[in-house]
Amino acid sequence: MYRILLIAFLFIFSVPLLKAQVYLMCDTEFEYPAMAKRARITGMASTLHFNIENGSPKIIKAEPAQALLKEASIKNLSKLRFLKDSNHCRITFFYELKKNITRGYTEYLGDTIKIVERDLFLSLTFVDGPQFNPSFIDDTVFFGEHLLVDFPIPNEPEIQLRIDSDSTFTLLKNNYSKTLKEEKLFKEARYSIEGINNILTQIRKENKGREPSVRIIRFYLSSEVPDCNYNKYYYEFK
């Protein structure tokens, strides 16, 4: 008798989480909790365990990494459309603030939905600031150029072009080489030449004809990831 109960106990608690098919709609707007944004809570996950009854999720247990994420995660879960009823389902919402994006976006990563928003508290104002504000290091002048890209930015950009004497360019650094080819960078840099030359004229006036011997354009990336950055009409969550 005890053996039968033990086997039944092990069977019940060894049942894997079932998969639930769910539609991910392009126009779905997931919420980043306002209080969490003000507290600058970032890099935190909130996992929800639930059953699906009549196409709607019924929460069993919520496991937020931070209490401020709980209610928003439950609200975000309610926005999903499920295709069939299932038990023992799980989904994780991951919340992240970034300073180098122009607007928020959502990534669908298997059984995780990643909600990324702009960190206004830390955000640089370069998108709205002067386009060619120069900085100097010895005999080198650096010009800042802003470039809008359609992919998430994983780390600080390291893209530099040297402006040669004939107004052509030489690539010095590019840690996004798989995504941003030299031709694209050269094309974007050509748009800057007129503005840079105007600044160099001003520098000559202020420095009695002297000008920096090395001129470099640094690209600052801002990201605008397209909506619906997934390839399936539905996803299967564990």
Short synopsis of the structure:
This protein is α+β, with helices and mostly antiparallel strands.
Keywords:
five-stranded mixed β-sheet, 21% helix, 238 residues, 13 strands, elongated, alpha+beta, single chain
Percent of residues in helices: 10-25%
Mean pLDDT: 79
Question: Number of DSSP helices?
Answer: 5
Instruction: Give the total of beta strands.
Output: 13
Shape: elongated
- Low-confidence blocks of residues: 9-15, 123-130
Largest sheet: 5 strands, mixed
Across the major sheet, the strand order is 3-2-5-7-6
How large is the radius of gyration? 25 Å
- Could you spell the SSE succession in H and E letters? HEHEEHEEEEEEEEHHEE
Class of secondary structure makeup: alpha+beta
Distance between the amino and carboxyl termini: 34 Å
Report the β-strand fraction as a percent range.
35-45%
Describe this structure in words.
By secondary structure, the chain is α+β, with helices and mostly antiparallel strands. Helices cover 21% and strands 37% of the residues. It has five helices and 13 strands. The protein has a five-stranded mixed β-sheet with strand order 3-2-5-7-6, with helices on one face. Strands 8-9-12-10-11 form a five-stranded mixed β-sheet, with helices on one face. A hairpin with a 5-residue loop joins strand 10 and strand 11. About 6% of the residues have low confidence.
SSE inventory with pairings:
Blueprint: H1 2-13, E1 20-23, H2 34-38, E2 44-53, E3 56-64, H3 70-78, E4 81-82, E5 86-98, E6 105-109, E7 112-118, E8 135-137, E9 140-149, E10 159-163, E11 169-174, H4 182-190, H5 193-206, E12 214-223, E13 234-237
Parallel strand pairs: 5-7, 9-12
Antiparallel strand pairs: 1-4, 1-13, 2-3, 2-5, 6-7, 8-9, 10-11, 10-12
